[in-house]
């Protein structure tokens, strides 16, 4: 009963649409890599709110619960790749959800434990989402046009959601083992900034994906070879940035 009440509260607070970003493996890889870089005190504090479970356990939770918590998983930007300011953001914009959850986490003593647990789950998921190339919403740009990948007709947007599986197809632990090899200085550089500056950087970097494919294009291995490194890089940046946010909020609690 308590869980239903909090889910209802989320609907009232956010009332947003759901469009899933990264698939389950990518979300779990982002959470798992982030978890490897949490301080012991941050990890313990977070798991206290999650009743002993890892953030990896809830990495894809928002997609699994989308019928009950219909968040929008995208960030709108302007012609200059800048995320829309708060005064111009659609109420349903994913950046609004991120900033509200961060505010509650930073003032968690004012909120019940179950509410904080929900906000942790939202942040773990949404920081990943804003690093998915197809979840940057550009003016006058269609994300769901039809293409063929390896001869199969599908929409362009979902190809990016599953891009990591289009190449290696590793488990989330294997992604960490193979890719999480940066120095502390390199990780700090990758994690620098804020959710707004990250969305701006991602928007600048990802605009090119709409030059790589147009409606009814037939895509195959050369496209994947070009697209995969971008997805991999953004997945890693999401991981280190998520760890930074959680450490800043929960370390030494």
Radius of gyration: 18 Å
Helix content: 40-55%
Q: How much of the polypeptide forms β-strand, as a percent range?
A: 5-15%
Indicate the structural class: mainly alpha
Spatially, the strands of the biggest sheet line up as 4-3-5
Q: Give the biggest beta sheet.
A: 3 strands, mixed
Indicate the overall shape.
globular
Q: Ranges with pLDDT <50 over ≥5 residues?
A: 1-19
- What is the string of SSEs from the N terminus onward? HHHHEHHEEEHHHHHEH
Number of strands: 5
The first-to-last residue Cα distance is: 29 Å
Q: Give the integer mean of the pLDDT values.
A: 89
Q: How large is the count of helical segments?
A: 12
Question: How would you describe the overall organization of this protein?
Answer:
A 3-stranded mixed β-sheet has the order 4-3-5. Strands 1-2 form a two-stranded parallel sheet. Residues 1-19 have low confidence and may be disordered. The radius of gyration is 18 Å and the shape is globular. Helix content is 55%, strand content 6%. By secondary structure, the chain is mainly alpha-helical.
Task: Give the key terms.
disordered N terminus, 5 strands, two-stranded parallel sheet
Q: SSE layout and pairings?
A:
Layout: H1 2-14, H2 24-36, H3 40-49, H4 61-64, E1 75-76, H5 94-106, H6 113-129, E2 136-137, E3 146-149, E4 152-155, H7 156-161, H8 172-179, H9 184-191, H10 195-206, H11 209-212, E5 218-219, H12 221-250
Question: What's a quick, concise take on this entry?
Answer:
The protein is built from 12 helices and 5 strands. The chain has helices at residues 2-14, 24-36, 40-49, 61-64, 94-106, 113-129, 156-161, 172-179, 184-191, 195-206, 209-212, 221-250; strands spanning 75-76, 136-137, 146-149, 152-155, 218-219. The strands form 2 sheets. A 3-stranded mixed β-sheet has the order 4-3-5.
């Amino acid at each position: 009963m308590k869980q239903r009440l909090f889910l209802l509260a989320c609907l009232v607070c956010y009332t947003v649409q759901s469009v899933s970003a990264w698939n389950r493996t990518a979300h779990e890889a982002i959470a798992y890599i982030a978890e490897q870089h949490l301080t012991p005190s941050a990890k313990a504090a977070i798991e206290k709110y999650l009743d002993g479970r890892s953030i990896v356990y809830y990495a894809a939770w928002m997609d699994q619960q989308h019928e009950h918590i219909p968040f929008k998983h995208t960030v709108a930007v302007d012609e200059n790749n800048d995320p829309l300011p708060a005064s111009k953001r659609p109420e349903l914009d994913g950046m609004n959800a991120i900033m509200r959850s961060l505010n509650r986490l930073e003032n968690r003593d004012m909120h019940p434990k179950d509410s904080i647990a929900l906000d942790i789950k939202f942040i773990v998921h949404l920081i990943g989402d804003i690093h998915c190339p197809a979840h940057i919403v550009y003016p006058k740009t269609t994300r769901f046009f039809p293409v063929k990948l390896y001869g199969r007709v599908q929409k362009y947007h979902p190809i990016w959601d599953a891009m990591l599986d289009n190449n290696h197809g590793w488990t989330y632990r294997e992604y960490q083992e193979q890719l999480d090899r940066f120095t502390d200085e390199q990780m700090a550089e990758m994690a620098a900034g804020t959710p707004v500056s990250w969305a701006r950087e991602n928007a600048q970097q990802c605009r090119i994906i709409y030059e790589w494919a147009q409606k009814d294009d037939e895509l195959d291995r050369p496209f994947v070879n070009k697209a995969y490194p971008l997805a991999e890089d953004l997945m890693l940046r999401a991981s280190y940035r998520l760890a930074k946010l959680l450490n800043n909020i929960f370390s030494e609690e």
